[in-house]
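Section 4.2 – Deliverable D4.2 (structural model, holo form)

The reporting period included a commitment to supply a predicted holo structure for the target in complex with alpha-D-glucopyranose. Inputs used:
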Amino acid sequence: MRRLAWASVALAWFVACGPPAQSDPTLDTDAASAPDEVVADLTDEPAPDVAVDTAPDVLPSTDPPPLCRSAIAQPQWYHRAVGYEVFVRSFQDSDGDGIGDFKGLTSRLDYLNDGKPGGDDLGIDLLWLMPVNASPSDHGYDVTDYRKLNPQYGTDADFNAFLTAAHARGIRVVLDLVLNHCSKQHPWFQASAAGTDKADWFVWSDVALNWKQPFGNSPSWHANGKRWFYGVFADSMPDLNYTNPAVTAELTDVAQTWLDRGVDGYRLDAVRYLIETGAGNGQKDTPPTLAWWQTWATQLRQHQASAGKPEPLMVGEAWAANAIAAQYQAAGGLNMTFDFDLAAALLASLQNAAPETLAQVLCAEEGVFPKDAARGTFLTNHDMVRIATQLAEPAANRLAAVLLFALPGTPWVYYGEEIGLQNGTDSNDEAKRQPMQWQPGAGVGFTTGTPWQPANGDAATVSVQVQTAQADSLLALYRKLIALRQASDALAVGETRLLVAGSLLGVLRKAGQERILAVLNLGAAAVTPAWTALQLGGPVAATDLLTGATATNLRSVPPRGFALLRLQ
Ligand code: GLC
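Output (structure tokens):
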């Protein structure tokens, strides 16, 4: 049976691409084999009618699908992880004040991963907490004390208990670390502005300068008394001066201190903007910025190694084209960056039923990134309109989920994506960071009080409780996909080859003897694979590639249909 499955796929290549250079001696032409083992481990869409195909008379002759991405030769823990991004403020409130907190998060860890095999936990094992340091804002990207926690989220003891409970379940935790800037209310800035201390901790000018943001049109310099300070994001967030060794030493120590407290690494905010050398191009991706990260990353690695701990995860938010993001993993020394190009291509592919868009981006990465570079694969994050809102059609959301786990890279789920949480109606950032919906009813299980941000009104369908009871829910699909991913070397670190035909995409992942094929029809019309032997279920006849003889019963792939096939 296993050999028959392989024969099917080999034929898929064969029909699409012509005879392989050498015939495969393992092929089995046993047409009477039962189909069940050929069918996907995961077939969520209803089985369509069987379409009967016969062998084409003339086979097109091209090579098998080329290698799109190599396997990870030396996997580290973070290559195999499945990540989950949480906004603590919106995940679970434990004390009724309408604001999520560490105790609430701890109480929901069993949902994320109960540490036991099986069960209906989500199965993630890497958690990114958006900023948890002291901050006057809701979002927390303007820190007032890097060594303290936001008291709204709980005490040191609450955080320690959370960390211990996460680790006990096999969940590693990375914190959002915002190094580029701090809050205008940070005592460092207050002292610097008053001229009492920390004179060179920020970037000051005695003359007005007219630099715009490198990513927008707002000014980067802000008046303060008779001087101006540089704050690339906002007047409320002055940039720290990383040409000052004292600043570097302090923020390196901060990072080492939280590692000593047990966190496993960092999501590094806005890595492109640390050190400026002038207006325009001198405001982003400068050589001293890259060199700074290299030194910092090396120090953190050494720090962990000297404590006998594994390499910390340092995942950079380099929101830029991959050619730029790659610099932070080469010259910059970070071990992961988020794949913003792929996220955009994935969305465009789903919206236009055009997998070619995605394929072009994914397969171009091989030559750009260092060998074994870890990439953060994601659909959306806290700065984007939620995927469920951008892909209004539920079936498209299911395809997005399959892609997230079938494509290479470390997948990151933004909290709520697994239940199809919608954006709030506003266009502000808060609307991207709605309360997590646990159950129907007032407070949606998030709080017994009034949520800091009103929940969407759709918890009767979009909630954990409701979708846990439905075998075909989006949540159920995420759980299955994550379990498959966690159990599969091919999906986690294997090589990737893509088959693209119109709206149809095949993602073939392989590690050792393990082969997994995801088949997705991104289009609104059923398609019979051009690679005709891709079996999505039902009777299968064998094909002998040695002779080219074939007689197959094939299914077409329904609109927005998909399957994930194990080929062994
Ligand atoms: C990053 C964060 C964003 C934040 C900005 C400034 O882009 O993702 O949410 O506002 O940095 O810290």
